[in-house]
Amino acid sequence: MAPKRPKGAGAFPKPVATPAPNPPDPAELYAALDLGTNSCRMLIAQPKGSQFHVVDSFSKSVQLGAGLEQTGRLSRASMRRTAQALRICQQKLKRHKVRRMRLVATEACRRADNASEFIRQMYRETGMKLEIIQPEEEARLAVISCAPLVSTRTEQLLVVDIGGGSTELVWIDLSSVPHAERPRAIMRLHAGFHPTASPFPAAKVVDWISVPLGVATLRDQFNDVEDDAARFALMSWFFEENLAEFAPYKDEQTREGFQIVGTSGTVTTVAASHLGLKRYDRTKVDGLRMTSDQIDRVIRDYLSLGPDGRRRDPRIGQDRQALIMSGAAILQALLRCWPTDRLSVADRGLREGLLYAQMSADGVLENGPF
User: Fold this and answer.
1) In this predicted model, what pLDDT tens digit does every residue of 111-132 receive, in sequence order?
2) What is the span of the domain harbouring residue 117?
3) Residues 164, 82, 349, 167, Cα dihedral to 10°
4) Are 288 and 331 in a shared domain?
């Protein structure tokens, strides 16, 4: 005899109504778009306390600088890819009714002979009005994006932003700033590297440099070298040669009280490899601290894998594998000059700096701890 079916078995469960979250007030939203040599990335966010809450985002590899080294111009194919990405960004801005924004382009547009024509074409095709920013502003925005990661024990700080077409380095002396104020002193640099008189203790920018070599441009310069290890060594030493004009290059730096903050896909990929992540997790990577020795072990592992092994390595990923060794060459050169026990990994950069700068200028961030 078949068991008796329980009463009500198989009935549909009563749905539990959950209220839809209220959409953010468009008057509180800010947007920042970073069009680099390799990627187009955008964030839409609203201020929340002393930081911000991301409402929407976009990131796509457009390879705007492809072929720029050889021709000095942005190609039609790269402009077409960029236009497609910008249309998506424009749709997101329209959907969220964002009114306050900065849409910036960096090294590829600074160097391209047809940059003005490209800017006009993008405005005609997408309605997006891009602004080409100069290296100093790019460096400054990278610095303030990393303010929350600055240790209160840091006396000397080096912020490194490894981009697709250029690398920005900023050396900051924090020794005269009270310990608890050091992260906020970095944030105040949104007003400029040499601010006017202020009642607050100031971070002193010792020197900064924009090296016209990033992961894409450095790779392209040494594409003709077939041996993997030789190509890596040449890229690393060539990058170091370009640091000769950077004042701190001449000084030996002790590890005590010295911190490097690295912001780039290279640094976050190395961190993910160090952690053995099969799938990238920003919460585990952003803010992670690594030593020079740990980073060196990851780079040696990349070299032992060779090009084929790196292509198959899930820690690196398909988007990053073609650029990881040029980025690692830059990173190794920096750590050869300034070894540290505190390299902080920043999964943040120009977009976050643009947002912080806009919000700080409008006074909508609370003056509390990060």
Assistant:
1) 999 999 999 999 999 999 999 9
2) 26-133
3) 20
4) yes
